[in-house]
Amino acid sequence: MRKFTVTVLDTTGIQPYIFGSNRLRENIGASYLVSQATDNWARNALGMLKDQIHQEVYAFDPEKHQPDAKPHIEDDELAAELVYAGGGNTVLLFSDKQYAVQFTQILSKRILEEAQGINLVAVHKEFDWDNQSLYQVVQDLMKNDLDAKKRSRIPSAPLLGLSVTATCRSTQLVAVGMSEKFEDDEPYLISREIQKKLDAVHFANRQLREKLLNTTSEIYNFPLRTDYMGRSEGDSSYVAVIHADGNGMGKRFQEFGKDKSNRDYIIAMRELSHSVNQAGINALKTVIEILVQSIQTDENGKKKVKGYFEIKDNYLPFRPLVYGGDDVTFVCDGRLGLELAAIYLEELEKQPIADADGKPKPIRACAGICVVKTHYPFARAYELSEDLCRNAKRFVKDENKRDFSALDWHLAASGLSGSISEIREREYRVKIPDFQEVASLEMRPISLRKEQDSDWRTWKGFTKVVQHFNEDDNWKGRRNKVIALREVLRQGIDATQKFLKNYQIKDEQLPLFPEFSGQSTDLAKKGWLNGICGYFDAIEAMDFYISLRE
To answer: What is the pTM of this model?
Structure first.
């Protein structure tokens, strides 16, 4: 009988830790430290444990991707073996519980010293390798013990200073020094937590370049300030915060390891974790390649994205913050937010990973895009992008069809007040005589499905309608008429039909949704279908982006 101890690591409070600052460099450093805490630092902690106890340990090399590489803890008398690190969790096996505790102490000390503000949670459980399922033990630890420990954890109260102190501008904690001067920014008071985040920026940028930039795009850099996202001199500037998350990936991880022997479970989880990580990175690489290809040099030698706006000092108007898996957050110039989010979701679908039945299946995901003014509070923008992503996921579930990717967005021309549901209730719900219940001006969320069926709320349909308003003779160059239509749509079907007749719009109908074979003509003639307006979102987006380019 071989008994081992399973250890599962997780972190809490990650969102406020990463996105709590309005300074992009601090967000970058924070994200890097979080990624290190439960991956590379855990591997390093195993190495330190080996030196202390003078026994062999094994932390497989993720770059080589050898899921069945030896030694194995059950055969080779190891003190510890890393099972996998991915999906937000790290799982390890120890030959003795004392080693598990010692390892946790080593890792905790490093986090306390080098990443103040990250909260590590660890749970341990002994199990019988020969008679118990490692899969089931891990699932029980994650569902029960880990959640219970997170809920029961007593948060530490930081000492806010003795005698005369100054506060950090970002965290309001006790300042320990001044930041280094960065370009035009003056030094400012920083806490120990912010100091460590800023110290990590160089390593984060180097890692990002190594993972995502290829030879065709190596002349470009990732920005360290939102002002370098493509901001045009003298114009209002906007940044898009995009949060994307895979559909049902938690369940997929659970199902993948079921009904396997303990060693086969370890191999399977390493394979799945690696393939999901690579899928996210490959999708981001393609987004960057497409973005780089869109940059053109004009007659004055200025590099412009699609000829619209100039980039600054070879800085790409795009920056991933959280990446390496199905859970991704990136920021970009506000004018690119919707398009880059859609490209990312489409490219992610092209990266099939193994499924529980052994057949490769695509990852489908949902994304929320929040476009706000450049210096809008970042934490608030991220919170809204998460809410929008959840909206898209609910849309997928409500459709009660096969899985598909979807996105939802909000374009904030000024400030924001309330949650997304409150904003939409206030600004996008109207009472019109055509429907008994309150009608919805927005067609969002929308899917990225390409096949022809009865669904008209798709990215392809949305972009075709926007293109029609921009290029069709009835609407091209007639922005005032398009804006007038937006206001008429608020009044319902009768007002819309009168508008089309009075302005002598061809066939007295709006643009058709090309892949919608059901009631496309009916929707085009009325502007509404089943209490949902099909054109308000397209006009709003078109007007918003035109105003940014003027």
So the answer is: 0.92
